[in-house]
Design goal:
Layout: H1 14-25, H2 29-34, H3 36-61, E1 96-101, E2 112-117, E3 122-128, H4 133-145, H5 147-155, H6 157-162, E4 164-166, H7 184-187, E5 192-198, H8 200-203, H9 208-218, H10 220-229
Antiparallel strand pairs: 1-2, 2-3, 3-5, 4-5
Helix pairs in contact: 1-3, 3-9, 4-5
């Protein structure tokens, strides 16, 4: 990480959270259109700059993860909600999500790193959320076959001091796996994600870029395990 450029100013400002709070109160197209310059200045432009600035830090962890600063189709999730199958027809998301996914990934359901910015709910994530059937089976098999590596990875001192494993789990042992396996609770997981909760204030601090990079690096062994399990390079 020493070769990467430190950012001399804060990546995000309180204006981002103020805008998102206002959007939550006025989640309609007319308000969004009238306040589009605020969105661009407080959310879009800082997020794209953050993605670009994080790229060398991310590649120091692994060259196979993508920091794409394009406003559409890149690492920044679109603000527009997909309301086709939802009772909630609010057109806009009231959070900012940035996903640094694997170069071979076609969706969010693959190993990666994530930043979530929402008033009162800022967190970093690492791992794989809701993997498809094949990678899910591969990850469970990798844990069952090498429980010591999974235990070392998830209980290592630095990792455990920063992250908590989250996501949903099955109530019963998955088909094909021994219900008496010593890591059966790990095998029941539907998601293999680690979450590091932060504050709005931390996200607006001058060192947030470097803090994010250091936290992602601490989660590197977990992502490495998941890459190996799903046969993609780390």
């Amino acid at each position: 990480m020493a070769a990467t450029r430190a950012r001399s100013t804060a990546s995000f400002s309180p204006a981002l959270f103020t805008y998102l709070r206002d959007l939550k109160k006025n989640n309609d197209r007319d308000w969004f259109k009238a306040n589009k310059p605020r969105y661009d200045a407080a959310v879009l432009e800082p997020a794209l700059a953050f993605i670009e600035d994080l790229e060398p830090h991310l590649h120091a962890i692994s060259p196979h993860f993508v920091a794409d600063p394009r406003p559409v189709g890149g690492s920044l999730f679109r603000i527009y909600r997909d309301t086709r199958f939802s009772k909630d027809k609010s057109p806009y998301k009231t959070h900012t999500g940035i996903h640094f996914r694997h170069e071979l990934a076609k969706s969010a359901h693959a190993p990666g790193f994530y930043l979530h910015l929402e008033p009162g709910q800022v967190f970093l994530g690492a791992g794989i959320w809701r993997p498809d059937t094949e990678p899910l089976a591969q990850i469970r098999t990798a844990i069952a076959d090498d429980p010591d590596r999974w235990t070392r990875t998830t209980r290592e001192k630095q990792f455990a001091s920063l992250y908590e494993l989250g996501g949903d789990s099955l109530k019963r042992a998955p088909a094909g796996f021994d219900p008496e396996h010593p890591l059966i609770d790990e095998l029941k997981r539907k998601d293999f994600i680690a979450v590091r909760t932060l504050s709005d204030k931390a996200a607006c601090s001058r060192g947030f870029l470097e803090e994010t990079a250091d936290n992602f690096a601490a989660a590197g062994p977990l992502v490495h395990f998941l890459c190996d399990a799903t046969a993609v390079p780390f």
